[in-house]
Amino acid sequence: MNLPSPYLQLVIATIIWGGNFVVGRAIADQLPPFSLTFFRWCTALLIFWPFCRKQIKAEKPIILANWWFIAVMALTGITGFNTLLYYALRYTTSINASLVFATSPIIISILAAVILKERLTMYHFLGVGLTLGGVLYIISNGSLSTLINFTFNLGDLMVIIAVISWGFYSIAVRSARQLPLFSSFAYSIIFSLPLITPLFLWEMNWSDKVIVWSWASVAAILYVGIMASIVAFILWNAAVSRLGPARSSIFLNLVPVFASVFAILFNNETLAPYQLIGGLVVIIGVYISTDTKKMKRIRRRWSGFRKGGDALRKN
Question: What is the pTM of this model?
Answer without folding.
Answer: 0.79
